[in-house]
Amino acid sequence: MSIEEKFNQAKGSVKEGFGKLTGDTKTQAEGAAEKVASKAKEVVEDAKEAVEGAVSGVKNIFKKDGE
Q1: CA-to-CA distance for 22 and 64, rounded, in angstroms?
Q2: How far is Cα 62 from Cα 44, in angstroms, rounded to an integer?
Q3: Are 31 and 19 in contact (CB under 8 A)?
Q4: According to the model, what pLDDT value does residue 57 have?
Q5: Rounded average pLDDT over 24-47
Q6: For residue 34, which of 12, 13, 21, 27 is within the disulfide window of CB 3.0 to 4.6 Å?
Q7: Where are the domains of the chain?
Q8: Which stretches make up the CsbD-like domain (predicted)?
Q9: Alpha helices, DSSP H only, in the chain?
């Protein structure tokens, strides 16, 4: 889980809220898009870490069998 992506999600939420408050639909849409993009990046990073952990685990299994 990336702290940077959590920060970007929060920033997008603030921007979206500011757009709602001021009636600026462009800013609101930009904030929502930033929030979604950051969440997607976070999901991809988490999936990558899970795959890397699984590959590492399989490698360790084969190392133990070969000893």
Answers
A1: 62
A2: 27
A3: yes
A4: 85
A5: 95
A6: 12
A7: 27-63
A8: 3-52
A9: 3-22, 25-66
Which residues 6+ apart lie within 8 Å of 30 measured at CB?
15, 16, 19
Closest CA relative to residue 38, chosen from 1, 67, 64, 66:
1
Residues 6+ apart with CB under 8 A from 21: none
Alpha-carbon 41 to chain mean position? 4
Q: What is the pLDDT of residue 66?
A: 59
**Non-local CB neighbours of 15 within 8 Å, separated by 6+ positions:** 27, 28, 30, 31, 34
> Percentage of the chain surpassing pLDDT 90?
64
The position carrying tokens 């757009």 is: 19
The rounded radius of gyration (Å) of the Cα atoms in the chain is 19
Output the six-digit token pair for 14: 């603030």
Asked if the model's pLDDT at residue 9 lies above 80, the reply is: yes
